[in-house]
Please model this.
Amino acid sequence: PISLTKQGLLNAVSTKWNNALNLALLEQSVEDYNAQEIVAPARDAISAISRRRLIVLPLDDRFDPPAGVFSHGHVQTGDKMSLPKEFWTAIQKSSAEVPWLFEVSRVDGVTGPRAVYPSSLVKSGCDDPNLDRV
Model:
């Protein structure tokens, strides 16, 4: 029984390690792409910060603020998203006028399969399995 417990612990640690390693490699590949393909050849500072590859996460209950915070229990899904601070810098430096329009799309050959949400989280008719651009 002790060897099984050690084996179970080893598997758990190994799984956590592999997941962390895969995430770190993904994050680094995104940063490398941005540095080599967008920032380095950019003709000016605004071009270097206004177009980026990003890692997008689903907005779900894991983003619910802690109890006691005004928006706790009211995670808003829909057409809202958070953008990195570089986008605000690009807006300011370019003196862009409202409305600010952003396009978010999947990267062919790079992105994973689309996440499938449990039916309890998806309002009827709101989940489009063919959505690849916002």
Q: What stands out?
A: The mean pLDDT is 76.
